[in-house]
């Protein structure tokens, strides 16, 4: 009797903690793109920006960190980034308002260089004709036409290597020039400030080109030495363009060029429709199952329905606690869990009925029924858990979401079917002095 009360308290504690763990669900349960809306990108890591012998997998890891910094700068709630294979990165951005802007920010290499301009007209003429002198490169400064389209217009012969690079930056932010035009204000770290001071001090009167991803943004004349470690990028930016450039520069340059090989955008209205459809289908299935159990197994069916509710509560709590994402296939996994939970209770009830027909007492029938059904329940659920765990470990996207909810749901099902329902039966037997067990 005392042991039954203790077990009942444990069950109530589990239910209470579970509800507390995922309530309110709108805040605690993470929704996938198919339910919330947003964008998913698959990025292919290509060749490094600078020649190196870094292994592909390490290059991808470095690229992932830079992409993560840029995603953080977008201010989105609960983005998902993960490495796929050796050279791919999957990025999920739930609730993103401007997919095109997000793609621009994530895909820009943002390799910043400061290079001295060679003003010798003969060398420039030779470079334009195809004879670029050794130690130089020919790049173009872009300007916008009347339609606002940037086109290469001014050829510049630049000296290699770069005097200062984006690796020497400590900060970048949106600013405005004296003419109230949007610019990007740069601040170098101590090493970058030293380099910048040296190059400006020794090249007063010459031009210093600011190059971003192989395009000259501007090439101002150095009027005096700049020891402050600060610089400015101007280039006919809009406020949004200057702000986004500051974001990617602050996050750091990508160590490798990346290509967006897959893009999936789900609108918020479609996400809401998916939630409504999934919830309605799951509720309808649960109601039909509950009605069948109650009609066929009477009071035993009520116990099974209660255990089913506990199962779902535990599943939601585990999802919330481990910050897992609920997807549309995940809802399908929950629906399958409901069916498996009922299957376990059917096994138990049928074994109990057999024991009652054999002339055993109610208490003995309950104990024997659970003992006989236990092996079959563990066996069937364990094989399902193994299959679901494989989907969870090796699957991607929707397959992983299905495997996740199915794994959690089946494990919760073992607890509710074997432990919770038996405690309820034993409590009812000892507390209400039941003379007949109503299980169909």
TrEMBL record:
Compartments, as annotated in UniProt: Cell membrane
Record keywords: Cell inner membrane, Cell membrane, Membrane, Protein transport, Translocation, Transmembrane, Transmembrane helix, Transport
Gene Ontology MF: a single term: protein-transporting ATPase activity
Gene Ontology terms: biological process: intracellular protein transmembrane transport; protein targeting; protein transport by the Sec complex
Span of domain Protein export membrane protein SecD/SecF C-terminal: 257-425
Signal peptide: none
Membrane topology (UniProt): Multi-pass membrane protein
Pfam families attached to this UniProt entry: Sec_GG (PF07549), SecD_1st (PF21760), SecD_SecF_C (PF02355), SecDF_P1_head (PF22599)
Residue stretches spanning the membrane: 5-23, 277-297, 302-322, 328-349, 370-394, 406-429
Similarity field: Belongs to the SecD/SecF family. SecD subfamily.
Subunit record text: Forms a complex with SecF. Part of the essential Sec protein translocation apparatus which comprises SecA, SecYEG and auxiliary proteins SecDF. Other proteins may also be involved.
Function: Part of the Sec protein translocase complex. Interacts with the SecYEG preprotein conducting channel. SecDF uses the proton motive force (PMF) to complete protein translocation after the ATP-dependent function of SecA.
Entries under NCBIfam families matching the protein: 2A0604s01, secD
Name of the molecule in the record: Protein translocase subunit SecD
Organism: candidate division TA06 bacterium ADurb.Bin417
